[in-house]
Every structure is written in C-alpha cells, then in structure tokens.
C-alpha cells in the first residue's frame, strides 16, 4: 500500500496521469513550482523560474571554478559535468534551462505519447516539440541517455530554429548531426557527447520541463546554466544572483590584487592571506575610483559587502 501511494504521488507531482487519459507531455506549472519553491521571482509562462536577462548576460563572464565553489559552499555538490565535445570551445554560453528527458522507445509507450502530442497540437517529431517552447535566453538541455548512433537529437534545420528562438545553443547528453551546417549558424553553440551522420531513431520525449539528469547532475527547468570549455555548471535559480555576484566580487578582488602586486605595493603573502584593514580600504577606494571595472550594481555590491568576512 505504501509503494502504491508513493507511485501515485510521484505521478501527481510531475503532472502526469496513471489513467488512460494522459494530461500532458510537459510538467505542469504546479509541478515546476513545487520543486522550485525557493525561487521567489518572476516565472515564464510555462512556470519555470525566470532568472533575469541581466544575470544571464553577466554569467557568461564569471569563472566556472568560482561559480562551482559558491555552490559547494551552499551544499550543492553535484552541479558540474565535464568531458564534452564542444562545437565552439572559445564561446561561453549562459541561459535558462528548458529540460527534456528522452527515453528508448517502445510501442505501448510511444504511441500514447504521440497521440497526446497531437491533442496538444504539437507538430513534427517529438524532438521538435521542445523547440516550439523556447524563448530568448533559454538553453535546450536534453538527457538523450548518451546515445550517439541514431541518437542525433537535431541537425542544422532544427539548429536554425533553436537559434532563431533562443539566441543560444544546446546541451545534449546525446548527439547531433550536420555539424558543418550547425557551425554555419553564427552564434549557435553545442555541448554534446558526439556527432553522427545518422538520424534519430528509437527515441521519444518522455517529459518536457521535468527534472532531468545530465551526467552526475540533476537539472531543474529554469536553472541558470553556465557552459564553458572546462564543462558545465548548473546553478539553481534561487542561487543565481548569489553565485554571479560572489564570482564577480572574487574576480574584482583578484584584479585589484594583481594590480597592486605588479606595482609592488603589497607582497604576495599580504594579498594571499586575510587582508588587513589598510588593504580593504585601498580596495574599496579603488572600486569607487574605477566604476567601469565593477560588473554589479552599487546596491548589489553594498548588500554583498554586508555579509563579507574577507
């Protein structure tokens, strides 16, 4: 009885149905809100937390290691995934996660999903359904269970549509095809497990905007994603501002420290250990005198400094 209650609860949470009448191929707004309760800000029309465009823009410039360190200090230990094939390694990508879980297909599961897609007026194959939902600043993130051959979730046609809607790229624990065509899309980028000339077969969308697994990380819809050459950090939406401002502050502090070391004003030992009141005052004066060097607002910096222990 306990196991049955748990099963029914799980289906309810994800907005699915255990009857013959499926509710939707995507998570409900209520389900998304349930597992992103700590987010108190604006939400997209589909219910995902909507991290601000300003934070998304600034996230591209922060250090992946610094972002990871802030998350570790907050108790989030499974937020990094590396070992990717990256289409443009020199081009960082940041955005809000639109998550998709793919499953190996079987007729008794795939046919009802396709029928439900028709009822919801979703067009094309199921790998195109998430693309229709993309908004500017989103990143299409998919668990394709690492499938390479016959696991190509997009080619250059869908790639063009993705970039037109999101002005971003994709992160696939799976593969893509038409690499030359995808590379011709200026601004588009991709973190994938491989490339293959085959087309997608034997796969179907299991759920859109449900929690999904990418490598060793769990990704929630609306997470702030930072993808760089080293790998990808998945930042919970409610921690996005904290991660970005902390990372920006560390970078600012390092810039000041490197400057003063080159000038010979302080020794490496003084800069690498807890700063004295004299160095702190010098740093704050430098910040005030060089506003163009400061990526965050004065209000964000002042609020951050209230809890800073240096």
Automatic annotation (TrEMBL):
Coiled-coil boundaries: none
Region of interest: Disordered: 107-130
Required co-factors: Mg(2+)
Binding residue positions for substrate: 155-158, 177
Signal sequence extent: 1-22
Binding-site residues for Mg(2+), renumbered to this chain: 178
Transmembrane segments: none
Keywords annotated in UniProt: Magnesium, Metal-binding, Signal
Cross-referenced InterPro entries: RraA/RraA-like, RraA/RraA-like_sf
Highest rank taxon of the organism: Bacteria
Name of the featured protein: RraA family protein
Organism: Salmonirosea aquatica
